[in-house]
Design brief:
Layout: H1 3-22, E1 30-34, H2 40-48, E2 53-56, H3 59-72, E3 79-82, H4 91-97, E4 100-104, H5 107-116, E5 124-129, H6 143-154, E6 159-165, H7 174-193, E7 200-202, H8 209-215, E8 219-222, H9 224-227
Parallel strand pairs: 1-2, 1-8, 2-3, 3-4, 4-5, 5-6, 6-7
This protein binds pyridoxal-5'-phosphate (PLP).
Length: 234
């Protein structure tokens, strides 16, 4: 067994335990493997261990891996999520190659992605990134601005709005982290109550996936826990 296969097994168990502790069905939480800074060979190890959904932060690096894996694993249905901040001049390769974008933080980016999504592909699946804790260095939409942006994004023809993503500042402990994740869940529930049909609440990473699952995360994004420590970039 490769190290990555062992790590994956461990992270899947963590998610399962967190679900059981919270009285949730383990099948209700997707484990996204965040492969940024790691090569196509590392992704191939994860694919061999049954992983199918991957997250990338940097557009060109992500597109290179998507193309490499399509060539090395033809017919294996991998799902690629763009989870990094997106500049307007980089939307085209994302619209052409990724399946999901979790980091929508303004209408202009969403409009460009919708315009640029090729007709032969299914709609791009998107989440709005919310800056739940008001962290000054974080991208993401302030909580009061989420609902109007969500309503506008939901109208775009080549996008499907799936939910919210958040990256809170690292918390002092799981109790503090849980409180922030609970606010994200409240925003998510309010959007659904207002008539949107959202099924994805993307929150929790290697260090805080347990409190995120307890608060209702449906997708956790795990990098180091699966692939190990990254070099400085990212
Ligand atoms: C890097 C990254 C992750 C993974 O973080 P780890 O701490 O390595 O698990 C998750 N989400 C986003 C948006 C990231 O940039």
């Amino acid at each position: 067994m490769t190290t990555i296969a062992l790590n994956l097994q461990q992270q899947r168990q963590r998610v399962q335990h967190a679900c059981h502790a919270a009285g949730r069905d383990p099948a209700s939480v997707t484990l996204l493997a965040v492969s940024k800074t790691f090569g196509a060979d590392a992704v191939a190890d994860a694919v061999a261990a049954g992983q199918r959904q991957f997250g990338e932060n940097y557009v060109q690096e992500g597109v290179d891996k998507i193309l490499a894996l399509r060539q090395s694993h033809p017919g294996v249905p991998l799902v690629w999520h763009c989870i990094g901040p997106l500049q307007a001049n980089k939307t085209r390769p994302v619209a052409e190659h990724f399946d999901w974008v979790q980091s929508i933080d303004r209408l202009k980016i969403a409009q460009r992605l919708s315009d640029q999504r090729p007709a032969h592909l299914p709609p791009l699946q998107v989440c709005i990134q919310v800056n739940v804790d008001g962290g000054p260095t974080k991208s993401g939409v302030a909580p009061p601005d989420v609902a109007p942006l969500a309503q506008a994004v939901a109208q775009l023809p080549r996008l499907t709005l799936r939910g919210l993503m958040c990256i809170p500042e690292p918390a002092a402990n799981d109790v503090a982290a849980h409180a922030v994740f609970i606010s994200a869940k409240a925003i998510f529930d309010a959007l659904n109550a207002s008539g949107l049909k959202l099924d994805t609440l993307s929150m929790g990473m290697s260090d805080d996936l347990v409190p995120a699952v307890a608060a209702g995360a449906t997708l956790v994004r795990v990098g180091r826990g699966v692939f190990g420590y990254r070099a400085l970039k990212g």
